[in-house]
Amino acid sequence: MTINVIGAGLAGCEAAWAAANRGADVTLYEMKPAKMSPAHRYSGFAELVCSNSLKAARIDSAAGMLKEEMRILGSLTMRAAAETAVEAGGALAVNRTDFSDYITNAIRSHPHITVIEREVTEFPEKDTIIATGPLTSDSFADVIYGKLGKALSFYDAAAPIVTADSIDMEKAFFASRYDKGGADYINCPFTKEEYEAFYNALITAGTAPLHEFEDLTVYEGCMPVEVLAKRGADSVRYGCMKPVGLTDPRTGHRPYAAVQLRKENREGTLYNIVGFQTNLKFGEQKRVFGMIPGLENAEFMRYGVMHRNTFLNSPALLDSSFMLKGSSNIYFAGQMTGVEGYTESAASGIAAGINITRSLQGQPPLQLPPTCMLGALSRHISTPNENFQPMGANMGILPPLTEQIKGKQERYAAIAARGIEALREIV
Asked: Peptide bond preceding 33: is omega within 30 degrees of 0, i.e. cis?
């Protein structure tokens, strides 16, 4: 029983891992390091391009619920995250390099996985999972769209990273919102006057040209900070610069606005500017972000970048098992399918890996409960929708409880417990 997996991102690695652990011999194709996309920087598998955060850790949240489901299904991503985690308050964040290295080593050392380093440029005939993601090479993207004829595009952006010792801690302070977890974030507080000056500089700063594409469609989950800011004077103050849950120890009061920075590595030598995905020119980033209190002399190890993301019109193409309708066992996995986020992409890879193996074993697809998060995401990508857009894990896509629970936290805890138990019963 042999299958092919194209792409060694989160989804592809999870798909290969799931299939190989269920008896399949897997050939995993990856074009790096011979060919890199504009957004990739590291030669390892499962590279985290935008943020190093896998979102909330607590199980009674949508992101945490999905993580627990992934653990139940034997996720390699969750194993790697546990081994490479860095402090991030109530979130699960990782050291990017260590995380990639862990997954790369696990995949390369698996006795039933063979890695071939080359770009695939032909559409597969059978028994293949396509997990090339939103950064699919232009040549293979053309092949896919020539075959399927239905795809959409949007842009994604990454936030800048600065060195910790270049942050002025006379102005910034350590804390997590509402003191949840440890004091894991560096917070840069603004007065009203500082915020207004920064805001005006942000909305008038020069952006990098996007020569390749004419239309700019930005997904809300990775909105460049300058695009968000242009929606209104308080748009970022209620978004990535919200001051709620923070108290400036120097004043004893909540700041007018605040920028948070999160650890990039365990050593705490690098921090990324949370929510500051951007397409500003590099010189403009240094100038404008240097107006953030505490970052006047920040040393940028990576400036923010913007790149194109593509995803399929999956409801017209895929079923709930992530299989291409009418195909000879061709599956898709990852963000290309319209699931949005790191863990969502990885989870779809697990589902595709399980289902292609079951198909080759003569078994029906895994019937994911509608009450579990992965089941809800699989329905999202396969249910007819004329205005299909990417979707991340959220409680709103799950069926409501039969009983009424007023408290939001208690209600979410009950929803998560219901879905996780339902998944455990079928695994």
From this structure: yes
**pLDDT over threshold 50, residue 213:** no
Cis peptide before 111, with omega less than 30 degrees from 0? no
Q: Taking the CB of residue 402, how many other CB atoms lie within 10 A of it?
A: 6
Is the Cβ–Cβ distance between 300 and 162 less than 8 Å? yes
pLDDT in tens, 252-275: 999 999 999 999 877 788 899 999
Distance CA 390, CA 220 (A): 9
Q: Tell me the C-alpha to C-alpha distance, in Å, between residue 292 and each of 152, 195, 252.
A: 36, 8, 20
The tally of domains found in the chain comes to 2
Count of C-beta atoms within a 10 Å radius of residue 378: 27
28 forms beta bridges with 5, 115
Q: Could you tell me the pTM of the whole model?
A: 0.78
Is the pLDDT score of 96 beyond 60? yes
Place of tokens 């921090």: 271
Q: Give the 3-state secondary structure of residue 260.
A: strand
For residue 381, how many other CB atoms are within 10 A of its CB?
A: 25
The CATH number of residue 403's host domain is 3.50.50.60
Q: How far apart are CA 60 and CA 354, in angstroms?
A: 26
Same domain? For 171 and 118 the reply is: no
Structure tokens at 136: 């699919």
pLDDT of residue 83: 97
**% of the chain residues with pLDDT over 70:** 96
Three-state DSSP class for residue 288 = helix
User: Residue 38: is its pLDDT beyond 80?
Assistant: no
- The label of the residue with tokens 């896919």 reads 144
Whether residues 205 and 340 share a domain: the answer is: no
Same domain, yes or no: 116 and 197: no
- State percent of the chain over pLDDT 90: 70
Residue 301 CA to residue 298 CA, distance in Å, equals: 9
From residue 199, how far is each of 34, 194, 237 by CA, in Å?
41, 9, 10
